[in-house]
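Re: that backbone. Tokens:
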């Protein structure tokens, strides 16, 4: 188990921490990087499969964030998008008092792979309600993540870069 933990830690250090520290060394401020990380996480979990890269690019352009950094974070949180898809759908159903759809993530992905337009048509209102739930949660989450990541990123500045 310890070997596995060290490989896991080494992977995240090499694939995430080192590049993020590199952005800081290139002149990105800790506050800007923290904002980039927060946007990457929040936009990366939007309950619409296939739009996160575009949303992150748009946010990077509008808020003058680092494009490679936001996409790096977006790709790292991609599994969270699938994990949170059903909870956002359920939250949307709760907010709009909809009858719960008997769906799971695998069925939704299967629908999209089989017939994209049919899936869009079938899931339109469910998706819109899930987006509203994401917006309700996402706005405060963005602020919280920014507040949490500013001191973490500032601490990274003082650490030497060790590539493994």
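Recovered sequence:
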């Amino acid at each position: 188990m310890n070997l596995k933990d060290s490989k896991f830690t080494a992977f995240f250090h090499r694939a995430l921490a080192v590049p993020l520290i590199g952005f800081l060394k290139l002149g990105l401020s800790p506050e800007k990087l923290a904002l980039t990380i927060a946007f990457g996480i929040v936009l990366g979990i939007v309950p619409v499969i296939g739009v996160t890269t575009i949303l992150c690019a748009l946010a990077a352009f509008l808020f003058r964030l680092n494009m490679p950094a936001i996409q790096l974070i977006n790709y790292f949180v991609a599994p969270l998008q699938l994990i949170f898809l059903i909870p956002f759908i359920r939250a949307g159903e709760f907010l709009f008092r909809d009858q719960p759809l008997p769906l799971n993530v695998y069925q939704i992905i299967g629908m999209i792979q089989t017939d994209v337009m049919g899936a869009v048509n079938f899931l339109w209102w469910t998706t819109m309600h899930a987006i509203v739930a994401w917006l309700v949660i996402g706005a405060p989450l963005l602020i919280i993540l920014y507040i949490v990541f500013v001191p973490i990123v500032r601490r990274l500045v003082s650490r030497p870069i060790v590539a493994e």
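The chain has a mean pLDDT of 89. The radius of gyration is 18 Å.
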